[in-house]
Inverse folding.
């Protein structure tokens, strides 16, 4: 490949990643500003009509969203994939007549692996898992932001509220996949190169949800996810961590102080490989007991740990390194 063509491809990849980081960190505020300017300007009628429509559409993020195959297949997502690169690995067949709850680990700073694999077709999810429709669960607060919420739903993002996940997992006929970053926003504060810490010991709500709807649990581990950014030192108990945790309780979102290449928000070019484990069949139990939840949670943790141990050698993790479950 000529050097000029290679440089052009790399420039496209950088642009694809930068536009996504911008969308993740800034686009919501831009959308809100555009709407406010429209309300104060000559386009106020259109803005009011949109707000009226928005009120009637407020339940969509909890009812499966409004995904767009066209958006999920944009060419920009293939350049986004190739920047790292990102790949999706299947270890077992998934029956499309069932519904599934994917537990995604680790959260990482910006859940880049989850977005690329489950919110776009860049890594070929529909070809790898035919008949399944993935939905990445995102904090409900993001769906209160006008215009921005309509854009993110196009990729298959839906609210992480319990009613939203329940809607997907109870759909008759199967084929629905709810993808949850189990560690939540606080796990993002631990996302540093070399880190293998997962917040999961007390995260049992997703297990109870799977029991209530009889949805199979599937552990997913994304190797390389924590290598994409550096963070400002924030050990537990430090003033930085205390401030981040306090803000998380108020804002619902974590605020990691991170940087990537050249000290900017551009992530490092580190391969990310998302490995999807074998499903754990879950019997439908409308009112599961604590003992049932604990037993299934223990089995899930065992399968997740086994998945990591089986594949870690292929992705450069030494044999003496193991997951730290907190």
């Amino acid at each position: 490949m000529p050097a000029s063509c290679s440089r052009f491809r790399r420039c496209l990849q950088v642009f694809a990643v930068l536009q996504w980081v911008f969308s993740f960190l800034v686009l919501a505020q831009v959308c809100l500003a555009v709407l406010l300017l429209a309300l104060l300007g000559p386009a106020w009628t259109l803005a009011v009509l949109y707000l009226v429509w928005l009120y009637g559409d407020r339940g969509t993020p909890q009812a499966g969203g409004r995904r767009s195959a066209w958006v999920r297949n944009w060419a920009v997502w293939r350049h986004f994939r190739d920047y790292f690169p990102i790949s999706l690995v299947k270890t077992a067949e998934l029956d499309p007549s069932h519904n599934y709850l994917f537990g995604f680990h680790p959260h990482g700073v910006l859940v880049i692996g989850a977005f690329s694999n489950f919110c776009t077709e860049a890594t070929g999810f529909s070809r790898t898992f035919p008949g399944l429709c993935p939905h990445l669960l995102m904090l409900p607060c993001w769906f209160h932001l006008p215009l921005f919420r309509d854009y993110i739903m196009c990729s298959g993002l839906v609210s992480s509220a319990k009613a939203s996940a329940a809607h997907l997992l109870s759909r008759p006929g199967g084929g629905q996949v709810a993808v949850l970053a189990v560690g939540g926003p606080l796990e993002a504060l631990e996302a540093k190169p070399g880190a293998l810490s997962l917040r999961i010991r007390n995260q049992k709500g997703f297990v109870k949800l799977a029991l209530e709807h009889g949805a199979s649990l599937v552990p997913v581990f994304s190797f390389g996810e924590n290598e994409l950014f550096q963070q400002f030192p924030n050990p537990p108990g430090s003033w930085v961590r205390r401030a981040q945790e306090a803000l998380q309780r108020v804002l619902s979102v974590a605020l990691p102080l991170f940087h990537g290449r050249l000290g900017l928000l551009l992530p490092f070019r580190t391969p990310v490989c998302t490995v999807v484990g074998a499903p754990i069949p879950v019997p439908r139990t409308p009112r599961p007991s604590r003992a049932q939840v604990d037993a299934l949670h223990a089995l899930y943790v065992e399968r997740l740990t086994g998945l990591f141990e089986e594949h870690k050698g292929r992705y450069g993790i030494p044999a003496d390194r193991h997951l730290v479950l907190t």
